Amino acid sequence: MEAASADMEINGDQKTLHRKQSLYQPLQYSQIYFTRLHHMRTILHSLVHLWKPHLPDDPVNTVLGLEQGKECVIVGTIYKHMKLKPSILEEYSKERSAGPLVRPHNFMHSDDPLVLEDESGRVKGSGGRGDPSIFVTGVVAGLHGKETGEGDFLVLDVLEAGLAPQAPIPPGLREDKYVVLVSGLSVGSSASNPLQFQLLVDHLTGHLGDEKEQSIASQIVRLVIAGNSVELPQGLLAGQNLASKDQSKLFEPIKELDILLTQLAVAMPVDIMPGLNDPANFALPQQPLHRCLFPGASAYNTFTSCTNPHSFELDNIRFLGTSGQNIDDLAKYSDATETLDFMGRTLRWRHLAPTAPNTLGCYPFTDRDPFLIESCPHVYFVGNQKNYETRVIKGSEGQSVRLISIPKFSETGIAVMVPKRHQAPTKTKTKGAHSIRLRSQLSEWGNHQAQDR
């Protein structure tokens, strides 16, 4: 299989790479909030007149300039005061107590209030329009309402930025080209099946299946591995010096992964993103896994170690994705029925990780916020989720985004194939140790795209 040519690829990870290594100690996290508020406030101000045309010419006010009973709009950063949010001091005291330490999967409480903050001050929101279960700390939004006699702000409506501008899909994409998305390989874990992974490699490289499946495999132009590729033995990672035999055990999963990646890199371009369990930095944006970990795969120019989040373009179709930490953190501090709801919110908020740096580890940038979504992607994927899900969301200016939730391959045996012509994903699943079959999913969106063109 031929590797994809350079005319199809534009890498967009530059803004998530650390320009220089700086010490954390002299840096403050407040600057990233100031940068976020300044950027988003300009966008929200431009939308106010279309959102509330009945308001006066200059309806936007500051928190300090609120007047009791006067209807206005205030723009600021939301702070969600959560009673159940973990505190290191409380956890320490509970660990020393005789009772068991209960850790809820979600830290929401029915009485959690929303507070809006700008440079001048903060005010507590009241009323039923600003649903605390939807929002999280760090989101920049506009609130329409008025100050009450108690000093609160009665919220009548909430303005979100909405989907960012999106480049049009170029016409004339006659040939189907597939991008394969997979996550949670977890090589080295008890849940990982080496034979299942080898079946996936053989299928993608065209060594399995009938002529139709081999024809599809020949049209794969990129494989993206979205985090959690290896699982290192936790018992060996206690900070002490390791014996030589323990060092070999520690590196064994990475060697096994390199062998499989080398087979893939021979046949197609491969992007590998770091995840929560991978040997990479903890704070987002995670920097690329060092190429010395993969001596076999890194010998090929088709192998690319990428950042998390990862952004790239193929034939002017923009892909944006993460390894799942941003969505997993949203699930702890807000509520939704499924993963795709969280993904849609991050696009409407124009921010990939609004909870960073409050509850999600983040590098203390001082001159920019790398998680701001300035250009709306055509495909937005998140790895290491519980289930495979997909949906299309539309924007007010004609934007159309395919959302894809990628499950853990080690647990489900599922990878996702995205045809670039229609962006209608196909689920690739290995069943047992004997067969691989393809099942089309939600092809109706591809028909809508063809009708639009």
Automatic annotation (TrEMBL):
One of its GO terms (cellular component) is delta DNA polymerase complex. Signal peptide: none annotated. The keyword Iron does not apply. It is found in: Nucleus. Residues 422-437 have a biased composition (Basic residues). InterPro entries: DNA_pol_a/d/e_bsu (IPR007185), DNA_pol_D_N (IPR040663), DNA_pol_delta/II_ssu (IPR024826), PolD2_C (IPR041863). Residues 438-453 have a biased composition (Polar residues). Residues 28-158 form the DNA polymerase delta subunit OB-fold domain. Residues 179-387 form the DNA polymerase alpha/delta/epsilon subunit B domain. The keyword Secreted does not apply. This is DNA polymerase delta small subunit.
